[in-house]
Amino acid sequence: MSGKLYAISTGPGAADLITVRGARILGKLDVLYAPAGRKGGDSLALSIVREYLGEHTEVRCCHFPMSADSAEKEVVWEEVARALDAEVQAGKQVGFITLGDAMLFSTWVFLLQRLSHPECVEIVPGVTSFAAIAARAQTPLAMEQQSLAVIACTALESDIRQALAQHDSLVLMKVYGRFARIKALLDDAGLLDCALMMAEATLPGEQCWRQLREVSDDQPLPYFSTILVNKQWERV
Amino acid sequence: MSGKLYAISTGPGAADLITVRGARILGKLDVLYAPAGRKGGDSLALSIVREYLGEHTEVRCCHFPMSADSAEKEVVWEEVARALDAEVQAGKQVGFITLGDAMLFSTWVFLLQRLSHPECVEIVPGVTSFAAIAARAQTPLAMEQQSLAVIACTALESDIRQALAQHDSLVLMKVYGRFARIKALLDDAGLLDCALMMAEATLPGEQCWRQLREVSDDQPLPYFSTILVNKQWERV
Fold first, then answer.
1. Tell me: the pLDDT tens digits for A207-229?
2. What ipTM was estimated for this complex?
3. What domains, with CATH codes, occur in chain B?
4. Given an 8 Å threshold on Cβ–Cβ distance, is B235 in contact with A113?
5. Which of A53, A114, A186, A223 lies most in the core, judged by the most C-beta atoms within 10 Å?
């Protein structure tokens, strides 16, 4: 059997929101690479998939620095990409797990960019955090002719303002540490009353705020906090 | 046991791209409602989930008119919502399946708007068609500070032009019947060479075009055809 690398999306957090395909592949891997936020720290992605892992799968946690220094990050991406290449060349069935969907705001794409044999790669898509948030909040992402923008709150303020003005629905990711600023932008745009915020959707710590006007500017938020804006949604 | 309504996202098309949760719920339903494109026609959503259905699950196909007449559509939404309400009130475990993700461009939200007991509803999110396309094409949706717009090609031309100018990545859905116009807009925006088109991603009829410049304006396309634009993606 020739080697293959699977990039497996875990979905938003609840273990049973992974795809059937992802779960089946996890059961037959020789080795699984799991990203960990801090050196020696736990991997949330690993905790999601643990129940699906085969008995003989070796697990390797890899640490990606959150550093602003892109040279430092590139060294790590290059190292992990070479390690994945080597496993595949050795004929192994290799997995790399990634939170949410592998192709949206994921470290995985920096590895994909650097792999020597993309033809040996299969990417298993996953449920995005914002699809999970829309489901839990019973608030649609977009209907019919509407348009949806997915932006990170780390984007330029002018770009966020423009997107708020132009789209019917918006997903604002990476709110953590930026809530006061985003709340002010939503207020300026007249959108505070059609926005909601969720943290850790589908995980045991899930929280939802539907009245952002009443949320204090210094409200402590979990790392995975996202705002969903839908300008037109209402029950009939 | 009290009645419950599950809106179950099937994912993009391949049966094993449904979530583990969706598959498990399908196995325990009393009744499943499946949307069908044409009256008496087959339901693509039903063909995706058939293998997960319990032996005793009753299947009811419901036809939603594609008509431009919104009064006609509203009558059907109201009828189906009342039927779902009645099943739940009778204590049944009821499913409604929906292609892709239930909260994105789905008829499901028109039913959700009209249900009498949203507290009896659980929405199971799914893999969107565009996440599947990004995975199959090995082309990311967005990285780091980038922004993604998801728009329907039925939107106003001025809105499409604006989105093409402003976002790093774009998903253009509902290309069917509008390819020539969208190709011209992409060309005007200088984006023809960073766009790709996929039809029926993850289904047996999957097709991918990476050189849109060479695709003829009157190329016959399947109904589920989507264009993905990523202005910055390249291998290292």
1. 999 999 999 999 999 988 999 99
2. 0.96
3. 4-127 (3.40.1010.10), 130-230 (3.30.950.10)
4. yes
5. A186
